[in-house]
Design brief:
The chain has 287 residues and is mainly α. It is 72% helix and 0% strand. The chain crosses the membrane at residues 57-78, 99-120, 140-159, 171-190, 212-234.
Length: 287
């Protein structure tokens, strides 16, 4: 009947566009809270050019408290990543699907760029200061090591508090906030820890000096934390081969869901009659 065909088409569309369902449910919170954290952190920095070195404790506390609060708010929705390095480590730890991870990272980058653009446009020119741009005050290799260390301890805290054997509702968010505060107290690099937060101001002001440090450092630190947590502290696999097998199974689950939608009756006709928006989303999933 027409009713059953319509329901089949709707179900096929929902399965086919799992990426869209993820973006519509979990990605917006990631974008919003990344915007909020970046905004509060940058506003906390003294905007006057005469204050070249803001009070590190004040700025560190603002970043730490904002991350603790925002992660608490979004934990039930998206897990409260707020950070591409965190999302990458969650992917390595098999706590998020590859399609979800991609969606999260795009949302985080969009949130950070948006808030940086808003701050740049709304702040008076004489008060812009450095716009929260991270600056390397040591050698590049030293800065890379610092970013790896502070990101390692931060992401290890997130991974360990997210384990099932620990209740994150008790003190996990406070621990995560304290780890962010600790990282920002080490001010030799301005403490990136978050590639999205570093990208926003750099992109708006077109200042990319040593910008690679604030991507490679946090991502490498996050990978190291995920490996330590998953293979040593809370082992779930015996080695790299088993981990690779588990990752392949996750990818296969996504492919099976897509194939299920394609084989449902009436899906081809529904695709042909779908809107341009649906077509674009389908191409993203197929890609």
């Amino acid at each position: 009947s027409n009713g059953s065909t319509l329901m089949t088409q709707i179900y096929a569309s929902m399965v086919k566009c799992k990426l869209w369902s993820t973006c519509s449910y979990a990605a917006p919170p990631e974008a919003v809270v990344t915007t909020a954290v970046t905004n509060m952190g940058h506003v906390a920095m003294p905007a006057s050019h005469s204050l070249a070195f803001p009070d590190p404790l004040f700025v560190s506390l603002v970043f730490g408290i904002s991350v603790a609060l925002m992660s608490y708010c979004t934990w039930p929705l998206s897990g409260g990543h707020l950070n591409p390095a965190v999302t990458l480590s969650m992917l390595v730890a098999m706590k998020v699907r590859p399609s979800w991870a991609l969606c999260y990272i795009l949302a985080q980058l969009l949130g950070a760029i948006t808030t940086s653009a808003l701050l740049y446009g709304l702040t008076p020119e004489h008060s812009l200061g450095e716009m929260g741009i991270n600056k390397v005050r040591v050698t590049s290799l030293q800065a890379l090591a610092i970013e790896m260390i502070v990101s390692f301890q931060y992401i290890l805290c997130i991974l360990s508090t997210s384990e099932n054997r620990r209740d994150p509702s008790k003190c996990g968010h406070l621990i995560i906030g304290l780890s962010v505060t600790l990282g920002h107290l080490i001010g030799y690099t301005g403490c990136g820890m978050n590639p999205a937060r570093s990208l926003g101001p750099a992109l708006i002001t077109f200042v990319f000096t040593n910008h690679w440090v604030f991507w490679v450092g946090p991502l490498a630190g996050g990978l190291a934390a995920a490996i330590l947590n998953e293979w040593v502290l809370f082992p779930k696999c015996s080695g790299f081969r088993q981990w690779l097998t588990m990752l392949q199974e996750k990818l296969q689950e996504d492919r099976n869901s897509q194939a299920t939608a394609e084989n449902l009756p009436g899906f081809t006709a529904f695709e042909e009659e779908s809107s341009t928006k649906h077509w674009l989303l389908t191409q993203i999933v197929k890609g």
